[in-house]
Specification:
Elements lengths: L1 H26 L3 H30 L8 H34 L1
């Protein structure tokens, strides 16, 4: 099971990192780069969600899923990364909107 938790942490962490970088690029006015990074973040988040779905499907199929601190930690990473990616998208959209209004 540790392999699954580490995949969740890795992909979630990558998603959060890409989203944070995307916001930094948008802050500099590099909106194309920001959107590229946001796409990377969404791809990593999708990989994490697929891994998480596998855990849920296993449990639904009757396979025993051991509850551990590492599993809880990895799911926390997924949840927080989902929020960061969603907020990054909104923040970047706001920055694009206000950039256009200033010009």
């Amino acid at each position: 099971m540790n392999k699954i938790e580490f995949k969740l942490i890795m992909h979630s962490g990558n998603a959060r990192s890409y989203a944070m970088e995307a916001m930094k690029e948008a802050d500099k006015g590099n909106f194309d780069k920001a959107n590229e990074l946001l796409l990377e973040a969404k791809e990593e988040l999708l990989n994490a969600q697929k891994t998480h779905s596998g855990i849920i499907q296993d449990e639904a199929a009757g396979k025993k899923v051991e509850l551990s601190l590492l599993l809880i930690h990895s799911e926390d990473h997924l949840a927080s990364s989902t929020v960061v990616v969603d907020l990054a998208k909104q923040i970047i959209n706001i920055q694009i909107k206000y950039s256009k209004e200033r010009n």
